[in-house]
GNAT family N-acetyltransferase
Amino acid sequence: MIHKKTKDGKYTLRTATPADAEQMEEVQRICFPTLAPHELLTKEHFANHIHVFPEGQLVITDRDKVIASSSTLRIQFPKLDHTFMEVTDNLWITNSHIPNGEWLYQFDIGVLPAYRGQKLSTELYNTQQELVQSLDMKGQILVGMTIGYARYKDQFSIETYCEKLKNNELTDPTITPQRKAGFEWVQPIYHYLDDPTAGNCSVLMVWPLEGVSFQEYIE
């Protein structure tokens, strides 16, 4: 299990416990105000994630307050056009988590607004990459929400927005930091979740360990 200080020494990054579930729900509710209610994770979901795959659930705390959290499961490389509800087993992960899965799939991450800009999400990604290595896995997968599309939805389609992101012609509050952290662009999934402000879209990205290729899964 993980328990350490963040790089600046201000906060604690650790493995989540059942006692954190209620605060993790609050972090998600604040971070994803436009996500469809049936896709929002509850304290019951978070508690089950901790039960099913305890090593993969992380929080960052400011004293006793959860200020950021990240939820993952182990899988084999997914089909490219999967949805959020499919990969999370309708949010529970009980049947979609594969104990010996080769890839760590992050399906939720949130940092409270007052704590953004301190690279806390990057610390979570880096810690997960260390977990991947310690568990002898191949790398991380995530599907980042195109949160920034809300600013451009009256100008062009979500397909055009994603193309501009891929070519670094635009930046996105979620996708751009994830790419800078180490994740490599694979492709958009245009019906990944139910959030019209994000065009119902997210971008599939992969961060393999050094020497690991993921090209065989996407050809």
About this structure: The domain at 3-217 is CATH 3.40.630.30 (Aminopeptidase). The chain has one domain: 3-217.
